[in-house]
Amino acid sequence: MNMLFEKHIVSSPVHLRRDMLRELFTYWNSLRNGRFAPSRNDICPSHIPRLLRHILLVDVAEGQHKLRVRLMGTRLVNCFDRDLTGQILQNTGSDPLGSVLAGYCRSALQERHPVAFGPMQCHMQDNDVLIHETLALPLSADMMRINMILMGISSQPRSAIGPLAG
């Protein structure tokens, strides 16, 4: 899998291209209540049922060195043809998807703000090309350290949208 993308910090939903990501950002932002990030306990899945299948929830542990996938939405499992729930994300060449997702998490950890990636082309092993846009949102239980990353990933086949603007 080969991925090409751009990255930017998000301060408003207008900076996002996809409706689903704008909706996720708006929900996350509404939970902050003046804090830099809401906690996992603030999130009520019944308030965002349409988004759940597009969500990846990652635990951050051991001084931000260990990233474990807690939940992977069904749309993402189908898109990537694998379920990463329970797996550790690492920046290794042996697992390109895990490396990319770990990179997204590390960007959100470093920036301490929402970070968006894409649009990007994802060249799958079967020569299919998917277009992805990702939003990585920090979560904090103690309002000091980030202990989880909430990601929304919007993807669709390139054939559904045509060529990307250059």
Can you walk me through this structure?
The protein has 166 residues and is an alpha+beta fold. It has a single domain (2-158), classed as Beta-Lactamase. It has 3 helices and 8 strands, in the order ββαββαβαβββ. A hairpin with a 5-residue loop joins strand 6 and strand 7. The model has no long low-confidence stretch (mean pLDDT 84). It comes from Iodidimonas muriae.
Compose a concise summary of this entry.
By secondary structure, this protein is α+β, with helices and mostly antiparallel strands. It has helices at residues 19-32, 74-80, 96-111; strands at residues 2-4, 7-9, 55-61, 66-72, 88-89, 115-123, 129-139, 148-157.
Number of strands: 8
Annotated CATH architecture: 2-Layer Sandwich
SSE order: EEHEEHEHEEE
Low-confidence stretches: none
* CATH 4th-level superfamily: PAS domain
Number of alpha- plus pi-helical segments = 3
- Report the major sheet: 8 strands, antiparallel
Q: What's the domain count?
A: 1
Distance between the termini: 21 Å
Mean pLDDT: 84
Question: In angstroms, what is the radius of gyration?
Answer: 15 Å
CATH topology: Beta-Lactamase
Task: Give the C-level CATH assignment.
Answer: Alpha Beta
**Oligomeric state as shown:** single chain
What general outline do the C-alpha atoms trace?
globular
Question: What is the share of helical residues?
Answer: 10-25%
Structural class by secondary-structure content:
alpha+beta
Q: Approximately what portion of the residues adopt beta-strand conformation?
A: 25-35%
